[in-house]
Amino acid sequence: VITNDTWPDVAGALKTNTVLKYDQNLRNVEATSKPVELFKLHLGNMPDKEKPVLPKGLDYKKAITDYLTEMGLISTQYSEKLQLSTERELYTLYPMLKESEAAAIYCMRTLKEHMITEVGSSFMIVDCGGGTVDLTTRELLENSRLGEITERSGDFCGGTYVDKEFIKFLKRRVGDSAISLLHENHYGQLQYMVQEFCRRVKLPFTGNKKDFKTFELDIEEVCPVLKQYVSETTKIKLDKDDWIIDLEFENVKEMFDPVVGKIIRLISNQLNAGAGSGTCAAMFLVVLKWTYGIELSPQWKKGDPPERKISHGRINVFSKLVSRGTIVDVDEEFGKELFPSIEDQSAASMKIYKTPAYDGKYPDEPGMEKLGELILDFPDSHLGFNRKLEFTLTFGQMEIRAYCKNQNGKSVDAIFNLEF
């Protein structure tokens, strides 16, 4: 049994991989030879075609039995019996702590950090594992106890499904048959390539484009044996690219999107299931990572930088709506009334900015980042300055909505990602 305690940028997090290595006859677990992984997914209620392929002649029950035996949880003498046991019999013979219960125990120690201290408060646990994502909603009871207020739910959308999307990406670049032959004949090199992807791309990926750097996958360095399985047509193209495949931001985002989308739907369903049981405390608070505001153009006045004076005696400034570190309720609004810069103004442009600073003066100063822009008619110019627009930023669970309405009821809006 190999337990890893060193990970990229992390140390001390103990984790035993769910991987076995068998002898050539698939009978005995050995330190070398054929690796078998993801076999736990065969316990799930999923179509057979979506279950991981196991070596011919190896039953998933044997793999699970062997894994538990190697972990020391089950004596070898019970291995045969385990294959015939029902889940109830197994639990009776070998009491185990379920992952959801272990997660709940961990959360008991950290509730104060998340401002969940009142009896009756509820919170959701989303356990994103390698193969599955499991959700449960708990309620804080008296005497530091937890209750379960919704039925547990989950699905097959863990981290390994991002790996599968990466392999699909490789198939599009080098060909289906090339990857299939690599899997069949050099499984170790394929897994090394996947692990390099995980270490260099998947784990550091934040979903924020400005944090991303194009990753160059050098086939000759990472998986040179793959070259012999590539078709001549593909080989010519890859030769021109020096056998380097670029992973751009959009490529990686497309690998995450189906998995993240599924997790978000699971969370939404879990929230709806618990709608009658009170508010799920942790899910409905957002701590802002950025300061948000808009560009305004007030009158330039004495003391303002002369070089910043623009037409009509105005100056462009950053007007803060909400500061970083603010704890906001989901769907909480922050707004401002806007007035014309010139009397006969017929349209208005609302430029939205964010900054990591707690405040800002000008929209072009270091750290400022433009989120987007709304443009809306400013009607009734005959009223001069006696007109206004209503502008709001609304913070959702995963997004920000910018909205503006003029006095005639016409409106415009836009949605931006909310970064945590």
From TrEMBL:
InterPro entries associated with the record: ATPase_NBD
Name of the featured protein: 8468_t:CDS:1
PANTHER family membership: ALPHA KINASE/ELONGATION FACTOR 2 KINASE, HEAT SHOCK 70 KDA PROTEIN 12A
Transmembrane segments: none
Highest taxon, organism lineage: Eukaryota
Organism: Racocetra fulgida
